[in-house]
């Protein structure tokens, strides 16, 4: 028997599941899925002005810091998914590494963080739709274009994994053109600032310490480097996942980091009036930078490329969220689990879970349209922290199993370095969560504490449901079996 059969067929059987999906996703397509979810184009465009007005040009170094920390996390994830190449990512990993209740809370927080992220990306993408078609961006058009992005992504997701992979590859090409090609062009042909500008705070610290301003700009990196875990969310649709997914995750971080550096750096160096951006006078400087350097026609082409990247990002987010919900439901852990765990016999995708992954963002869009303009900021404030909390739930659970004697049995293994990498990844994660959870200093209690308030509401409601409904007691799926499964996998490899 070949290693391919062990990894795809027998491997899944050892984990207690049968094959229900079509394994049509290659390494390149899996990487494209994670990269379009991470989307450096979306991240840089969304946070460029905020980063510069908070930390000045040196805020670019947060891209390096966070990329390094998240690369450590991706290596821990790589070992876990290599042993557990099953749908759902965060949920099954925490369940098999720790237990039902722990996994339920990690997945509950992560699901809501993903749903809100889908909403936010669709809302931000509406601006590109309006600019591309020359339509004025109003409250109404923002709502219409956001809904359109969500529904188009849903229709594409309904058609199957091959479409998802194809659109992800198109989105990857759009991302690479939009960030690397444009970034290099700005660096080489349109540079108006010296490279030394990245060591110049340009006065953002005022009369205070620059260290405080620099720490305040951490979001420039923290917002960028998640999404690589989506590579593992679709594990049962990937050929040879135990080997390919860890590679795809690490490629996502490395290429995403290079892309973000080139893009962010290019915009800084090509800005004709950088001081006005740093002073906070220009809240949306990138279109002006592009038009002044590329001209109106090429700037319009860039908008089309960016819109393609946004659509691909929404598509990838929906796909990842639906697979997590499916995994949750397959183990009987949520109400309506039989309905949510259904897989289309023709397209081999969890259609009902996809409907939910689209419907909740649609409802949030309606709430934003009829509610306060600040509602989008308020409902998305906890999303990044929630995702980091869920990530570190996996890292902590992996470390706990290592202390019990677990030695990962998948084909991707860090060997003796795994323990050190695991500790460093946890230390980085705690550092990042402290930065994300720091309250503001505006004097408005809700505005200053909204990140922790949002996380508390989501975690509190999840804990209440867990206590009252006790879904963990209704599930008989395997749990806390990392050491046992590792032994079984090694035995299978020896026999074959």
TrEMBL record:
Segments passing through the bilayer: 27-48, 60-81, 102-125, 137-158, 170-190, 210-228, 248-270, 301-321, 349-370, 376-399, 411-437, 449-468
Sections of the chain in a coiled coil: none
Pfam families: AA_permease_2 (PF13520)
Main location as per UniProt: membrane
Topology of this chain in the membrane: Multi-pass membrane protein
Cross-referenced InterPro entries: AA/rel_permease1 (IPR002293)
Compartment annotation: Membrane
Cytoplasm as UniProt keyword: no
Lineage: superkingdom: Bacteria
UniProt keyword terms in alphabetical order: Membrane, Transmembrane, Transmembrane helix, Transport
Name under which the protein is recorded: Amino acid permease
Gene source species: Paeniglutamicibacter antarcticus
């Amino acid at each position: 028997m070949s290693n391919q059969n062990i990894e795809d067929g027998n491997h899944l059987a050892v984990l207690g599941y049968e094959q229900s999906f079509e394994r049509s996703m290659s390494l390149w397509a899996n990487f494209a899925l994670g990269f379009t979810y991470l989307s450096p184009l979306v991240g840089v465009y969304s946070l460029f002005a905020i980063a510069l007005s908070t930390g000045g040009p040196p805020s670019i170094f947060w891209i390096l810091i966070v990329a390094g920390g998240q690369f450590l996390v991706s290596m821990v994830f790589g070992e876990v998914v290599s042993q557990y190449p099953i749908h759902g990512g965060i949920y099954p990993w925490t369940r098999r590494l720790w237990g039902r209740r722990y996994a339920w809370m990690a997945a509950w927080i992560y699901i809501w963080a993903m749903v809100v992220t889908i909403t936010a990306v669709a809302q931000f993408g509406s601006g590109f739709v309006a600019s591309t078609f020359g339509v004025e961006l109003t409250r109404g058009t923002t709502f219409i274009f956001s809904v359109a992005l969500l529904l188009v992504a849903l229709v594409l997701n309904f058609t199957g994994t091959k479409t998802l992979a194809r659109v992800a590859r198109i989105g990857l090409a759009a991302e690479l053109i939009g960030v690397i090609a444009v970034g290099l062009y700005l660096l080489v042909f349109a540079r108006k600032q010296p490279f030394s500008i990245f060591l110049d705070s340009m006065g953002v610290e005022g009369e205070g310490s620059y260290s405080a301003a620099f720490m305040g700009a951490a979001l420039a990196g923290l917002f960028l480097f998640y999404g690589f875990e989506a590579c593992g969310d679709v594990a049962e649709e990937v050929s040879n996942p135990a080997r390919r997914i860890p590679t795809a995750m690490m490629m996502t971080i490395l290429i995403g980091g290079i892309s973000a550096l080139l893009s962010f750096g290019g915009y800084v160096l090509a800005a004709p009036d950088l001081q006005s951006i740093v002073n906070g006078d220009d809240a949306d400087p990138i279109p002006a930078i592009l038009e002044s350097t590329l001209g109106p026609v090429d700037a319009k082409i860039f908008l089309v490329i960016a819109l393609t990247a946004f659509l691909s990002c929404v598509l990838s987010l929906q796909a990842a969220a639906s697979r997590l919900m499916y995994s949750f439901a397959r183990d009987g852990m949520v109400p309506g689990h039989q309905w949510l765990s259904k897989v289309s016999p023709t397209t081999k995708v969890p259609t009902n879970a996809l409907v939910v992954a689209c419907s909740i963002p649609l409802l949030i869009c309606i709430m934003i349209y009829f509610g306060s303009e600040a509602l989008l900021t308020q409902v998305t404030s906890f999303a990044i922290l929630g995702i980091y909390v869920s990530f570190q739930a996996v890292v902590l659970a992996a470390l706990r199993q290592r202390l019990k004697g677990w030695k990962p049995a998948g084909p991707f293994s860090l060997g003796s370095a795994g323990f050190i990498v695991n500790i460093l990844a946890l230390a980085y994660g705690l550092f990042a969560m402290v930065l994300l959870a720091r309250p503001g200093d505006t004097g408005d209690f809700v505005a200053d504490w909204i990140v922790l308030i949002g996380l508390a509401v989501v975690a509190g409601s999840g804990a209440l449901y867990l206590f009252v409904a006790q879904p963990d007691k209704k599930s008989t799926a395997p749990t806390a079996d990392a050491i046992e499964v590792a032994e079984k996998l090694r035995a299978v490899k020896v026999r074959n």
